[in-house]
Amino acid sequence: MDLRALRCFVAVAEEGHFGRAAVRLHLAQPPLSRRIRDLEADLGCRLFDRIPTGARLTAAGRVLLPEARDLLARAERARERVRAAESVREVVLGAVAGAGLDSCPAALAVLRDTRPGLRLRLHEAPVTDPSGGLRERRADLALTRLPFDTSGLAVRQLGVEPLVAALPADDALAARSRLHVRELAGRPRFRLPAGTDARWRAYWLAADEDTPGPVVASVEECLHAVVWDGVTGILPAGAARRHARPGIAFVPVDGHPPSRVVLARRADASDPLVDAVAAALAEAHASAAPPAGLHAAVPVGRPAPVAGAQASRRA
């Protein structure tokens, strides 16, 4: 049965009059009457007797009235539950090595205004997973970095980020304003585990595959390796802001391609809500100032300070 016809039926039954029911439903009376006739034809019985004062339920109409009210109430409950489910949708954002996180506050401010029921949850992926959780379906969208195998993913580049070498603060190179990646040759490096995406692993090692060093699975483990094992390695420049601590110096690196920050999602997925989050993140990233460059000289026990825009332009 048509829910619109049932609403018309209930209105006429409660008003006892076709005209008053039409006013209540904001309908003209002829369409209201047609819907009642169609409902009677579908059920094969009369629902109203026409009387001088309006309309009176027949025996069949009296049976239908509580059923119709129940059907309409159930339909409204279903509608409300569906709307509530959509209004509290959660989108999981994967994040890899701090990629694009500086743009998240501005994007969240926009999404709170435009999508008030949205919950955006951050999944911080290990540095061994450049897909940010997309491959294992732990994330709907990922802020990550190239290069890695992007088969099956749709990728949108947001920008580039310079690199720094993470060094023990008492290392001779820690006093330099910049260094070339070749100057790190022969030094032990923190390394990613075997089985990690080959392009990703080679990019962050920036050295021969047989270079010695501890195996790490997170940025924190990279930094611990610098302090505890005296090794060095390549990190995004933002690590100097997010992970500054005693005993580590961060020195801008030349001679190695900068990190390409991207938004990634599964190519076979289509979701307007994920589209909205992606658009907000891309707009926020485009509007944000480029990351600052870094001064290098850091005495033992002091974190690397952030430099001004001139160093950023050189980077």
From TrEMBL:
Family, similarity comment: Belongs to the LysR transcriptional regulatory family.
Chain ranges of the HTH lysR-type domain: 1-58
Organism: Streptomyces katrae
Record-linked Gene3D superfamilies: Periplasmic binding protein-like II (3.40.190.10), Winged helix-like DNA-binding domain superfamily/Winged helix DNA-binding domain (1.10.10.10)
Lineage: Bacteria, Bacillati, Actinomycetota, Actinomycetes, Kitasatosporales
Name of the protein in question: LysR family transcriptional regulator
Keyword Protein transport part of the UniProt annotation: no
Keywords associated with the record: DNA-binding, Transcription, Transcription regulation
